[in-house]
Amino acid sequence: MLKLYDIAVQSRLLLGTARFPSPAILAEAVRRSKTEIVTVSLRRETSGGKASGAFFDLIRELGVRVLPNTAGCHSVQEAVLTAKMAREVFRTDWIKLEVIGHHDTLQPDVFGLVEAARILTAEGFQVFPYTTDDLVVAEKLLEAGCRVLMPWCAPIGSAMGPVNPMALRTFRAHFPDLPLIVDAGIGRPSHAAQVMELGYDAVLLNTAVAGAGDPASMAEAFALAIEAGRLAHSAVPLEPRDMAVPSTPVIGKAVFS
Amino acid sequence: MRILVKGAGVAGLTVAWQLYRHGFDVTIAERAGKVGTGASGFAGGMLAPWCERESAEEPVLTLGRSAADWWEAALPGHVQRKGTLVVAGGRDAGELDRFAGRTSGWEWLDDAGISALEPDLAGRFRKALFFRQEAHLDPRKALSALTAGLEEARMRFLFGAAGAPERYDRVIDCTGAARIGRIPNLRGVRGEMLSLESDEITLSRPVRLLHPRHPIYIVPREKSRFMIGATMLESEDAGPVTARSLMELLNAAYALHPAFGEARLVETGAGVRPAYPDNLPRMTEDGDTIHVNGFYRHGFLLAPAMAGEVARRLLAEQRQPERRAS
């Protein structure tokens, strides 16, 4: 079973709550995907942190664990402040840490990320950092006290799926025992299945579900794909070969040449 | 039947108008000193159910498609039936296909088609979607005209009064965001807008600029003015527009046409839209009061259909008073 900062979870799908057509559709997506963790943005989806009581009540009524995030924060100071506000609003030490370095590509500012992770860990937060697939940055995040890492597989909202499977494979191999969640860049259930087959522990999604024509059905499709990918990984899939291997002996041919 | 309508935004005035047309004795109470001081005054006034269907549920289209006819009948000359143009910047061109895949009632235009409709946009976009059946109106002018029409019909307006002194058979509460926290599950969705003034560019119809993060629309108004909106934030804060939102709205206007860079910023505004969890309006009953609320971003679009529903309800009650819920 997956444990995130000592909390055991069954579902390996974490769902963002932004940009759904309506809270009712969000609730249906949560129900159909059986997700146990949703992320909520305090800054980007609200107004300068002055959050709607009613919207957050709706989130709480979903009956799932809330992982507040610092989406839209462009500096260490802003991210730390948002994390503290989130702790007040949702009464949790969990924080999905985003420090955006580039407004256009939403690429994380990894230097600010490490610094903010250090500050927040010291203040008792349990940090889920949104990072790149860079190993050195990942090690620094662990030094800063993170016990979960969330590498991207492509830029946020791009829906491209894993653009560098090699890097994801290396990342997994380098941290064999650490909970690793692929965050950002997933577009389709097949992408989610692919990273789960690589041995990732979970997948965090938002746009791929919220922006789908039927978000609730897509959420369920992702849950199934994640389950399939997880099962495939534990079943040890075949590694690709560069030539065909017949599954039954070929009569009359002793060897292939 | 004596009816009190509470709230003189688009919902209240539309309901009052519809009930007056059916011969009810109607009084309107508005806590503010004038009409349209809530979210209605900041509306885009787009009667665009086909475009809205991109993210809204089916009733927005089924209830909204007759809105333009209702407004035209109530206020002749106010409705402009010029359609909606939907464009996307070069890098976001994929957004147009996505939008087309989720809507109906559009046709593709090439650059020649775009410049035939909006000459000032010539050469700026290679492809656009045109929603021919859509319309728009100026919300503030429309609300003033409805008010003038109702006053002419000798309807009573009680401004600023805390409570109406007389007895009424039914109260229709159309006070929108004022009911947040009192009607279960009603929440606020903050919206911010701005108005620009420019003689350097002319548009004849609303233009929507698609963007994965900040889709915006520009609605031309009289006197070289353009209304640009609107943000969608899960917040009940009605405070002034934020620097970030202002930047995003201006940026989008500038991306549509650089002439907006030289325009004058003549107004900024922010309001709170009342919404239920499915973002669809609802008519609910509470004793003698009927609540009509939750118009979200579809006040001008869906108020006529909801007003019709209220009228049908009261007419049925008038015919069969014993069936009235108490």
CATH class assignment of chain A: Alpha Beta
Mean of residue pLDDT values of chain B: 92
Instruction: Please give the alpha-carbon distance between the first and last residues of chain A.
Output: 46 Å
Number of discrete domains of chain A: 1
Amount of beta strand of chain B: 25-35%
Major sheet of chain B: 8 strands, mixed
Q: For the residues shown, what is the average pLDDT of chain A?
A: 89
Helical amount of chain B: 25-40%
List the strand order in the largest sheet of chain A: 5-4-3-10-9
Q: Record the strand order, biggest sheet of chain B.
A: 5-6-4-11-12-13-10-14
Q: Please give the alpha-carbon distance between the first and last residues of chain B.
A: 15 Å
Q: Could you give the order of the helices and strands of chain A?
A: EEEHEHEHEHEHEHEHEHH
Q: Count the helices of chain B. How many?
A: 9
Please explain how this structure is put together:
The complex is a heterodimer of chains A (257) and B (326). Chain A has one domain (2-235): Aldolase class I (TIM Barrel). Chain A is α/β, with parallel strands linked by helices and 257 residues long. Chain A contains 9 helices and 10 strands. Chain B contains 9 helices and 16 strands. Chain B has an 8-stranded mixed beta sheet, with helices on both faces. In chain B, strands 8-2-1-9-16-15 form a 6-stranded mixed beta sheet, covered by helices on one side. In chain B, strands 3-7 form a two-stranded antiparallel ribbon. In chain B, strand 12 (216-220) and strand 13 (225-229) form a beta hairpin. The A-B interface holds A 21-25, 27, 45-48, 50-55, 57-58, 157, 207, 211, 213 and B 55-57, 98, 101-102, 180-181, 185-190, 212-213, 233-237, 239, 242, 275-280.
